[in-house]
Amino acid sequence: MATQRDVPGIRRYDSPAGGWGALSATTKAIREQMDAVVAPITLLRTNQPDGFDCPGCAWPDKEHRSTFQFCENGAKAVTWEATKKRVPPEFFAAHTVESLLQWTDYELENEGRLTHPMVYDRPSDTYVPIEWDAAFARIGEILRALPDPNMAEFYTSGRASNEAAFIYQLFARALGTNNFPDCSNMCHEATSVGLPLSIGIGKGTVSLEDFEQCELLIAMGHNPGTNHPRMMGTLHEMARRGVPIIVFNPLRERALERFADPQSAMEMVTFSSTDIATSYYQVRAGGDAAALKGIMKAVLALDKFASADGTVIDHAFINAHTNGYDAFVADLQATDWSDIEAASGLSRTALESIARAYVKSNATIVTYGMGITQHNKGTENVQQIANLLLLKGNFGKPGAGICPLRGHSNVQGNRTVGITEKPSAGMLERIERTYGFVPPQHHGHDAVRAMQSIIAGDSKALFCLGGNFAVALPDPEQCFPAMQQLDLTVYINTKLNRTQLLTGKESFIFPCLGRTETDVQASGPQSITVEDSMSMVHASRGKLQPASDQLRSEPAIVAGMAHATLVDSMVPWLDMIGDYDLIRDGIEAVFPDFAQFNARIRTPGGFRLPLPPTERIWTTASGKAEFFPFTGLREDPRFAAKDVLMLATLRSHDQYNTTVYGLDDRYRGVFGRRDVVFMNEEDMADRQIEHGDLVDLETVLPTTKTLSLARFTVVAYKIARGSVGAYYPEANVLVPLDYMDKVSGTPSYKSVPVRVVRSAA
Ligand SMILES: Nc1nc2c(c(=O)[nH]1)N[C@H]1C(S)=C(S)[C@@H](COP(=O)(O)OP(=O)(O)OC[C@H]3O[C@@H](n4cnc5c(=O)[nH]c(N)nc54)[C@H](O)[C@@H]3O)O[C@H]1N2
Ligand SMILES: Nc1nc2c(c(=O)[nH]1)N[C@H]1C(S)=C(S)[C@@H](COP(=O)(O)OP(=O)(O)OC[C@H]3O[C@@H](n4cnc5c(=O)[nH]c(N)nc54)[C@H](O)[C@@H]3O)O[C@H]1N2
Ligand SMILES: [Mo]
């Protein structure tokens, strides 16, 4: 057998996810990054009523008051921020930017926390210290000299608080632009764009209580053991209650197979675990819409033989609450099973059995992540999930609904408080009324558009509130050099990363407080607020001593730049920093859903933002929920050329987006390396490729230039036929910038058509 060959760093991992492996990994993370004494105190403050919100993921906590929920990757996120390592001015003096560009992403961030505001000095090719006020003044000069404010881009990464995000959008709009590229454009944009058309709101509709009443869970395209680890507690509990859990994922992900809950003394002591998925379907990458069509086609067939009592399809709900049903049904009837099977990689029999399970359940939740959204058909994928749920009225009843698993811990909140390139008229009108300036009305740039505009030389200034913009986007060969043509780059970050090293004519790095740290302003210690995946808004307050006495909070840095740039502004920028309650008053004035904002966040647990679909109110154009047929099945490139494989770029267990904590991906059996391609053994055999061989990958798209990646090592893996996997960001060299979901603008990170061949010896 090919898989028997010994490949360095590749070992079988037979244990369940969680368990003792997770405990020892946590201890290791703490040992490497933190003082042993501070660590337990810090971890115990995570997600406590008076503590800080975990920067790891956006999964909610029960009433936000549970005792610290054990979570390996939450602990990694906290320790990575609370590390004792530092990047002081002496570090920058000792390393030119050119030399730092040779470092790996892991090495850069592992240097520790940024400590001083820095400015790029071209003659020495180093970053040198600068006073905050001098930096703000210079940025103001450059911005005032821009011929058009739309030549500036304002990127946000979803870790920023509501307060930081709100004041940031106010700054950009007061300057005169709606250019808000956002990490969400690379993440859940298909949700933000697709769901409002289907059900009136671009957010999930379930709460934690719904999981307690749910009768069937369908988990599509997400890897919670790594990316939403606190969700494992919920899944574990559901599995033990006997709730069927159906998984769709091209890869066998260990945590979705079996999990040992580190909080279960029984499972820890007996080395036992709980099976999570009751059935696991290895759909082809990019094949979910096809699979969903198959399930729905089978549901229609079952309905034919049923009585009209609504036990199969909820016709009463459909008549009262939806539009577009007939056209949707006609499309399903016209779709061939053979096309569904070819595009999904799943058999008709399998899809029919899922339909039977779906029909049996009175309350179904579908959870989904990047495996659904990051495709050139991402919006259609999301809308097919909504269709499936609508068929049985799975909105606005207990135990049922849709649950997009959000990415960054406050990405949803950023959107809610105004980070959008397509602002509503109402929001702009209320900004004008509250702050006395007329914000721009025309739409601005999303992330891909912003980069295209930088490449074209049209955009001259880039601000980044967190994140690692250039590394997160596709096609570095094109994007990295373009960044260096910018006149001005301003990076507000906690850690060193590659984007900061792609210096423009003038570049600034502003170190900011992290969420774990105390934030003291004129009126005393401040709290910030965040919104989790389930629309719960609550306060978060840091407890640790800041990493350096030079750090400023994100809102303070933004306000400082605004104050120095907009000299005639009537917005009380600096007052708002003295007391964040004033920022929240502004949020309340611009977004009516935040009525009584300051009062409501003072109750532990916070409050939930309104979600009309939970009351069967549909804020769509028609006032009803909409069925959207998906007609693009045969556009899958694998129909045109049989040797094409679909590449999905993935996160390892030891990474947070572009932040690489370590080089292991324990559950997938990869240790100490990331230069691998996961392949199905039959696809390997077809190409005479063996486990451990070096291969070259090349994109196959008629309309874009060919991108390639050479000499990665093949790992034989339990991955669906027709699909290959590789790590993000290493594999971003294969993702075209302009191959995306046309509706939402999301890059097709999870389905790039590629050919794989053995590398020349
Ligand atoms: N520890 C940790 N936590 C994180 C992050 C992190 O990097 N590290 N990132 C945060 C962010 S910003 C986000 S957006 C989320 C990401 O969380 P996830 O959505 O879980 O992200 P990924 O790991 O990119 O991909 C998820 C899964 O999709 C599967 N998949 C790939 N293609 C397809 C497909 O076509 N169909 C289906 N059904 N599945 C497919 C992959 O095999 C993988 O298991 O997590 C957040 N939390
Ligand atoms: N190929 C491929 N590309 C992808 C994806 C994929 O699945 N495949 N996923 C996409 C997704 S879902 C997302 S969300 C994007 C992520 O894109 P980004 O959000 O831009 O990237 P991150 O890696 O999360 O950002 C890491 C940096 O954030 C900074 N940081 C950390 N904490 C804080 C903080 O509290 N404040 C501030 N100001 N800075 C902080 C640190 O300096 C760190 O270097 O990447 C996208 N890119
Ligand atoms: Mo994300």
Outline the structure in words.
- It is a single chain.
- This protein has 761 residues and is α/β, with parallel strands linked by helices.
- The protein folds into two domains: 115-186 and 410-610, Rossmann fold; 188-405 and 637-761, 3-Layer(aba) Sandwich (Dimethylsulfoxide Reductase, domain 2), CATH 3.40.228.
- 36% of the residues lie in helices and 16% in strands.
- The protein is built from 33 helices and 31 strands.
- The strands form nine sheets. A six-stranded mixed β-sheet has the order 5-4-17-16-15-6. Strands 24-30-27-29-28-31 form a six-stranded mixed beta barrel.
- Helix 7 crosses helix 28, helix 15 (288-304) runs antiparallel to helix 18 and helix 15 (288-304) runs parallel beside helix 21 (378-391).
- It binds ligand MGD (2 copies) and molybdenum atom.
Briefly summarize what is shown:
The chain contains 33 helices and 31 strands. A hairpin with a 4-residue loop joins strand 4 and strand 5.
Proportion of strand residues = 15-25%
Q: Tell me which ligands are bound.
A: ligand MGD, molybdenum atom
CATH architecture label of the largest domain: 3-Layer(aba) Sandwich
Spatial extent as radius of gyration = 25 Å
Q: Which CATH first-tier class of the largest domain would you pick? A: Alpha Beta
**Main sheet, how many strands, which sense, barrel?**
6 strands, mixed
